[in-house]
UniProtKB/TrEMBL annotation:
Pfam family, one: HSP90
PROSITE patterns, alphabetized: HSP90
PANTHER family: HEAT SHOCK PROTEIN 90 FAMILY MEMBER
Similarity comment: Belongs to the heat shock protein 90 family.
Keyword Transmembrane on entry: no
Protein name: Molecular chaperone HtpG
Record's keyword terms, sorted: ATP-binding, Chaperone, Nucleotide-binding
Organism: Flectobacillus rivi
InterPro entries: HATPase_C_sf (IPR036890), Heat_shock_protein_90_CS (IPR019805), HSP90_C (IPR037196), Hsp90_fam (IPR001404), Hsp90_N (IPR020575), Ribosomal_Su5_D2-typ_SF (IPR020568)
NCBIfam families: PRK05218.1
Amino acid sequence: MQEKGNISIHTENIFPIIKKFLYSDHEIFLRELVSNAVDASQKLKRLSAIGEYAGELGELKVKVSFDKDARTITISDSGIGMTADEVKKYINQIAFSGATEFVEKYKDKGDEKAIIGHFGLGFYSAFMVAERVDIITKSFQDGAQAVKWTCDGSTEFEISEATRERRGTDIILYVADDSLEFLENFRLKQILDKYCKFLPIEIEFEDAIINNPTPIWAKSPADLTDEDYLKFYEELYPMSEKPLFWIHLNVDYPFNLTGILYFPKVKNELQLQREKIQLFSRQVFITDEVKDVVPEFLMLLHGVIDSPDIPLNVSRSFLQADSNVKKINNYITRKVAEKLNDLFKNDRAGFEEKFENIGLFVKYGMISDEKFYDKAKDFCLLQSTSGKYYTLNEYAEFAQENQKDKNDDVVYLYATDLLGQDGYIQSATKRGYDVLKLDAVLDSHFINMLETKLVKTNLKRVDADTVEKLIDKGIALEAVLSDSEKETVKKVFDEVINDKNKSVQVEAMPVDELPAIVTQNEFMRRMSDMSKLGGGMGMFGAMPNNYTIAVNANHPLINKILKTEEESEQKRLAKQVYDLALLSQNLLTGADLTAFIQRTAQGL
């Protein structure tokens, strides 16, 4: 048996679906209905512009009001209105979009991007909060009769003649028992502020206009001043510091996009800055979760992005799969790189002043985006502990001169704590070496990335070993102590330290070096640093810190310890040397620090 037919959709099942599943958040109903009212006003403006409506436009604002006693919310406009036939066509046929039909009809006569609606389901979001909805509407057409449509959420409706003096539409919601929260002034104002703050038609609520219908991202950059951009930033983020600079986005091919991205003064953190970019579609707020629209590393920026190519009711899966979203993502990456490169080329001194605040963006981008790395490598800066800035190429040339080891590899020394590692920095600079300042939150990952990109180059933290080992020139210093004397010194320090996580090595170092230095293997240091930021390195963060105590066999104080015959005095001196080494790395704290100060007061 073979049979063909049409699948039947029973409309009595549609309202429970709308109420529960059409939108995840019931507050969206107000955004949808206000957007529809704005559309009705925009359509009339379009018809007037192309000569198909000769009447006075008058005041086209949308008014939102509520009556707590009557349990109603009303959205009114003075837009295009509807005839009885249009009500039957657009309201009774669920998912038939009047906006889509209008755009198609007039697509060659104006800017279709101004029309917000697409899917025709927006009106029915009213039933998420209402037990009954009335529509009173009058078409702009000459001689049109006002009509009233009413529905109680079932599949039945009534349509009749009505009285309305002027063209336009009133949507009246009779709020259901489970949605009485929406009959509060503050709740409606909260929703309007969130979703309708920049709609292109004035929105009136409680006798006040609550929106800015001409946000600066919809204007030409040539018509704007720095003051305009700063004022708008303050409007978006009232309690924030002034931004460093901004990028005005404006593209209409191969996709449509406008917006402004601000570079804020970023603290040394990643999480607290997120969710500051707002995504709009035709000036209607969609979301501030823009992970798939904006590259991950640029989510630290602030601002707005508006694209009519992204629908209002957007899902995460849509963003991940949509080709336009991918194009937007790539475009934003390119524009940010171009802006930073221009700033660097046109005002290097100013760029260097800002780099402490924008370095996090740059490094994050280089780590996470190969295309951005290719552009950013020319303006990413490395800062020496002396304060001087270098580009990657400049520093490579600089280090080539003096910081090659015996294998002809270039070694970049770096510090993560300028105060705590000051002794190590001084030891390196005393030997004529430069030390980079890499103390930002992402620098442990940035260091790893650099080593994968730079040829025959290693990065070593300045306190990871003695300077002679960090940049091993193949020149072995001679120790004044014999092997047996080294063993004796090692034994004394082992007994004094008595810590299985600290090993003692007695080795030849310059006489002017400290009597003992605490070091930690570069690999373990780096894994420990990365574990603090996350990224699958938790096992290293949980492991105990292992240190090496490098005792300077050529220091006079070590010789003094060796020649001291009384064992207790020998250990006292060794303890002083060990504490001094810990103090130089900020590892001596609390009671141990107090005891050290007291012993030092007695003199070595």
